Fold this sequence. Notes:
The protein has helices at residues 27-35, 71-85, 96-101, 133-150, 154-157, 350-371, 388-391, and strands at residues 47-50, 120-122, 223-229, 232-238, 245-250, 267-273, 276-282, 298-307, 310-318, 327-335. The chain has 396 residues and is of the alpha+beta class. The chain has a domain at 133-208 and 364-391. Strands 1, 2, 3, 4, 5, 6, 7, 8, 9 and 10 form a 10-stranded antiparallel beta sheet that branches. It is globular. The relative contact order is 0.17.
Amino acid sequence: MRDRISGVVTLAIAAAVGAAISAPIDRASAQTSAALKTPWGEPDLQGIWTDEFDTPLQRPARYGDQEFLTPAQREELDRRREAHYSDDPRQARGSALDVGGAYNTAFLTIKHAGPRTSMIVDPPNGRIPPLTQAARQLAAADREYQLALLQATDACKNKDPVVCGGGKYDPQISARFAEPPPRYHAHNVARLNRSDGPEDDGLADRCLYSGLPDFGSLFGGSFRRIVQTPGGVTMFYDINQGQGWQRNIVMNGSPHLPASIRQWYGDSRGHWEGDTLVVDVTNFSAKTDAFGARENLHLVERWTRTGPKTLTYEVTLEDPTVWTRPWTVKQEFTLQSNQENRIYYEPRCVEGNYGLPGLLHGRRVEEKAFAEGRGPDPRTVDSVGGVASVATDPLQ
């Protein structure tokens, strides 16, 4: 499915004029409304959906309180992004950044800039609320540990702002290489500069994903397939490069699972409020991470069919141990063709099936070579560098 959306998406804007109160009943509208119901009378959310534009999660500071982009601003962003992604962003072949980054722009799904300056619609500034003091301390402890493992690398020696930002170069190997991280390493992408076991790598490299809430990415877009049955709703998320996953939403009115039971994608309990599917999600595992929130994350999702080919998704994230206030994200999805997407090949996570075992084996080979005096100490080599182009997207 993720290959169905190309980098060129056409935006059509339609406007309707309200009829007079005395106007006759719009039978076509009534038929359309009836068609958006399942045979058993519930709002029909079924189909393959995706957002057809690129929108940053947080509003760039340059837009201030501007919620929507002007047509001219969108055209300028598209022009700059086309130029930005037309060249391979990797550095000289064989460099640490090239090997660490691995992917070039052929792996990315680049779409036109969307109308909003941010997915976040509340707070009004379009930004994630400030972290609590406790959350800042946890994040600082994580970062301090990450930098300790990097301190003897060229990334810190060269003061790389992305990889070693906030750290200092020290040619001495940190004693913290023998320590476990302060808490479970639950980052989707970032890896520790160590390969003692699979947990040192990012979740995506392990064919895992933090899951909810998911807002898509340049790596594969943002697809959902929704299937309904009487009393049941299930959603399949086709994301990234093989990290797709399924969620089932309990619709029988039963309470959440006991607090002692934790699940990777949480415990989803749904009900209908008019034409909107409202899903309450709790009971997350401490091994997942959503912008800093873990086991105390609480989501309230709202899925609303707004037209024959449109679906609105809103989710409010709350964790008083992490953020100073709740915040809300909004996405607009467009219905995709079931006929064109009727064949779906099982995603194969090359990263976890082949790449991760290779990384672990490669580190053992490097350690053996170093012990025999045939190579550098692997602990002085940066293995966490990424593709700079993604971080510097003009949209951000």
